[in-house]
Fold this sequence. Notes:
This protein has helices spanning about 1-5, 20-65, 70-75, 75-100, 105-125, 135-155, 190-235, 240-260, 265-280, 290-330. It is an all-alpha fold and about 375 residues long. It has one domain (about 1-160, about 175-355). It is elongated.
Amino acid sequence: MSERIVPADQTTARTLNDTALQAAWMRFLDFDRGSVRQKKTQYRIRTPIIVLMFLASTLAVASTYGDSVGIIGDLRGVLRAALIVIPLAAAGLLAYASQFSPSLSWIAYRLGAEEIRQQIYLYRMQAGPYAGRDLESQQRLLLDQVQEASNQVHSIGAPVPYLQLSFTTEPVKPPTDRPEDDGYSVLSGDDYVRLRVIPQTEWYLRSLNANYAKLRRWRIAILVVAGASSALAALGGEPLVAVTTALGMAFAQYVDLKMYGHTYANYHHTAGRLIDEVSEWQILPPERRLDPDVVGPFVDRIERIFEDERNNWMRQAVQAQTANEQALMKQLGREPFRINALTFSTLPQSADHAPDRGATPPDDTPPPSTP
């Protein structure tokens, strides 16, 4: 692949006609779209499963009082049918999700996208492994890194096709963080800070505050439900205790699904490190900020900070999604969800089998490109 698309005209390097950069941005867009699509699908499928499980638990409690409550007795047939259909529907949705939207698939695509984004900026800045190489070696290295990211996505699993229907060597519009950045041109150190580092830092700050606020709201709701359970138990409302317990469990599963509380500490630490690096950069005299021997190591340090955040995020995301999937399966194995375990033989592997490399954004995902 790399030998076929390295441009013969070397004057096109780091321009809109740089074929290596075009290939990198195209693959980034493929993975970015795949991650966004899979994440939305995951929420659309697993949120109804959580709701169905809570509903079945509530109906199971109600059915035990058919003899003492007239209206429930009159609906006993409907309740019995519902307690058969609802667990089957939940099991069917989970089996469908395991085939077409495994819990780790959107994480795999996001990792691939953010690793390629990192290589693009290192290439444009001629920093890190690209420093000191001739142009052809830099372009070959960029394409090799794109292929390595693709291989890692495939090693985790790519449940849906992510490549676009057509291949083009025309410039693609990259989703950069600032409209004045065309995604191809060489950047100065100050441009890199303005167009890459500051927007990313701002994204971390927005995301960590949003994540923390949502976690706090949901934790308060869970505490309220737990308090209601205790009050109902003291007042002799045992049937409603079972319902409130199921509601608290549903809230906790939703919090894990959305990863509230799993990312804000990581983002907070990363933002602090970036602010420190930028502050040290800005106190340098203007002539030193133009020195390639100063710019290169600075860019390399910044991208390593992004990589550290990505690795931490990956571990947290795998842990949260795996725990959520296991909780759903465990609940389906209980009454009134007694379903044949063979239905779920194709569910994603546990965190022990997940890759040990990582990545980045929004709401609760890596960098600015993700909604």
